[in-house]
Amino acid sequence: MFDEIEFDRIKRLPKYVFAEVNDLKMSERRMGADVIDFSMGNPDGDTPEHIREKLVESAQKTKTHGYSASKGIPKLLMAISDWYKRRYDVDLDPMTECVATMGSKEGYAHLAYAITNPGDVAVVPDPTYPIHSYAFILAGGNVQKMALPFDEDYQVDEDQFFINLDYAFKDSFPKPKYVVVNFPHNPSTATVTPEFYERLVALAKKERFYIISDIAYGDITFNGYKTPSIMSVKGAKDVAVESFTLSKSYNMAGWRVGFFVGNKKLIGALQKIKSWLDYGMFTPIQVAATVALNGDQQCVRDITDKYDHRQDVLIEAFGRARWHIRRNQASMFCWAKIPECAAHLGSLEFSKRLLVEAQVAVAPGIGFGDYGEGYVRIALIENDKRIRQAAKNIKRFLQQFEEQKGQSC
Description:
Layout: H1 8-11, H2 19-30, E1 36-37, H3 49-59, H4 74-88, E2 98-101, H5 103-115, E3 121-126, H6 130-138, E4 142-147, H7 158-170, E5 178-182, H8 194-207, E6 210-214, E7 240-245, H9 246-249, E8 258-262, H10 264-277, H11 283-294, H12 298-320, E9 333-337, H13 346-358, E10 360-361, E11 363-364, E12 375-379, H14 384-405
Parallel strand pairs: 1-10, 3-4, 3-5, 5-6, 6-7
Antiparallel strand pairs: 2-8, 7-8, 9-12, 11-12
């Protein structure tokens, strides 16, 4: 009898992007393989000491062990507001324009749940981090995909972006209510200029849609590039919200701390739905997050320098293995085109064979959308020695395709 009960919303979900590779990775490790893992953006460093010390200090206080505030304790909300003021010269009301979330992923899912009516349409560039699409699908909405145009230097072709967005609106019925943007982009690492957001806000006011911006990798930038914020645009709070996470900047992935800021209506909806669904993060975590945002940011610069260095090491080592990867100017990933000699495999089969035959795990591009095919995402989470060992393994792996095809990768 119960076997006949269907869960239609869950049936609409494909297997999660990391699941197939993760299952294969664990299988290889159970058999004793030393897998060098670039597949997930899971920072490998310690959370900075002053943040950990504040967590311990706060956890020693009995009064911090009860239920917390679902939208964030006042000191954390104030720290979020102050962070935006220092970084972007943006004024935010901490109580009505800020909300703390259990990581930005949870925030996206609950925001979509709060604001999506059945059949509502969100435009999401492809490729994309999966929750950007599936938050709306899980909430009963629909997603209109559009190709994300970027050049070989991972800079968005902004004119073409708005052409593609116009096509997406014309191809959609009903008219889209939301547009999702994520720069520095996951997975492609693509970046935009401040003028991009000025155009997007103007268009949102004209066409009457809301913008949901994600700057999770906003701190991880190189060569003088600075991530712009949509909140810096005059009038952005009329039409936009933006999310950030402490996972990458402060090596706090497992702590699950993020936040959304911006439009009072959308922030209020997220605050309200969270009041029904959770009692907030453990208070000591919120206290430690406050210290992270308010404290010395040298730790963020040190973490960024580590990713910058690792990108150099990876590009050089993989290049000697005849896998040529271009440098990007932001994020903790490389978005790598599959070597020509192995391109016929497609990203999923390439990733699976690379894992089994070379003991190197990467994330297949197809898992991020149709336009991710032909690429893999490589997270800069292994040290120099492991990166160079991976390159040696990859060189041997690619040689078999060179021999089969009689051509160099």
